[in-house]
Design brief:
The chain is of the alpha+beta class. It is built from four helices and eleven strands; from the N terminus they run H-H-E-E-E-E-H-E-E-E-E-H-E-E-E.
Length: 244
């Protein structure tokens, strides 16, 4: 944590210097800081494939929203070491706790309650989703991952906290695309999806990432929270139905 904070402090100092004085020479030093930051990202359980039972651990900055991981639209991240071939996408939501971090950049951690994307989850019977709780500093995050075989040509959903999603071909990440739909195309009523088995869940704090089915005991149903995207910047939060 201490090393992370020192990296962020020095990195933001370099960026401020570059902006104020148009000093390009600081960027190599900044890039070294971001490389070390990437290495420090902890891998946390976000899902388990409903088809193969393979776990999904994702490198996420869980210390707080002031980390470069969360910088919107494209933060400092690294790919997970392993990802099941059935993995399709991962989006997310977050309940923010006040006061939010004073970030020098924009952060877009999602709506204030978990949701599913019907055009993905309902596009084909071979697609299922998994929701898991991911604490981020004082905030409560939810990762929603999709697995299976969407119909050809199906637009996916932006990776949690970013403005684009990875294009995967034959198991390889080949590029990025952008999904521009707003929250009007999301469904925050999770009970029908959980009831049919299309949406599975992992209990909060379960490091084994055991998949659970059915509405009985599901902690993600009917959660309160804004049904709009949050944009956090410099200690302020604004809400919007669509991210630009």
């Amino acid at each position: 944590m201490r090393e992370r904070n020192l990296l962020l402090e020095e990195g933001e100092r370099l960026r401020a210097e570059a902006r104020a004085r148009s000093v390009a020479s600081v960027w190599p030093a900044y890039e070294k800081l971001t490389e070390r930051y990437q290495e420090l990202l902890p891998e946390v359980p976000v899902a388990r494939c409903p088809f193969t039972d393979a776990p999904v651990w994702w490198p996420i900055d869980t210390a707080g929203l002031d980390g470069w991981f969360w910088e919107y639209p494209s933060g400092v991240r690294r790919h997970p070491r392993e990802r099941p071939p059935s993995w399709v996408a991962m989006t997310g939501a977050m309940r923010l706790a006040e006061p939010v971090e004073h970030t020098p950049f924009a952060v877009a951690p999602g709506p204030g309650a978990p949701f599913v994307v019907p055009r993905l989850l309902g596009a084909a019977p071979e697609v299922r989703a998994v929701i898991a709780q991911v604490p981020v500093g004082r905030h409560t995050g939810w990762a929603i991952s999709y697995f299976g075989r969407p119909a050809a040509g199906t637009r996916l959903v932006n990776l949690w906290g970013t403005g684009s999603y990875p294009v995967v071909e034959d198991g390889l990440w080949t590029g990025w695309e952008r999904e521009e739909s707003g929250v009007e195309r999301y469904d925050f009523d999770l009970e029908p999806w959980v009831g049919t088995g299309a949406l599975l869940w992992i209990s909060p704090g379960d490091e084994s990432a055991t998949l659970r089915e059915g509405v009985d005991g599901c902690p993600y149903l009917g959660l309160p929270g804004p049904r709009q995207f949050a944009v956090v910047e410099r200690g302020q939060v604004r809400r919007t139905a669509r991210l630009g």
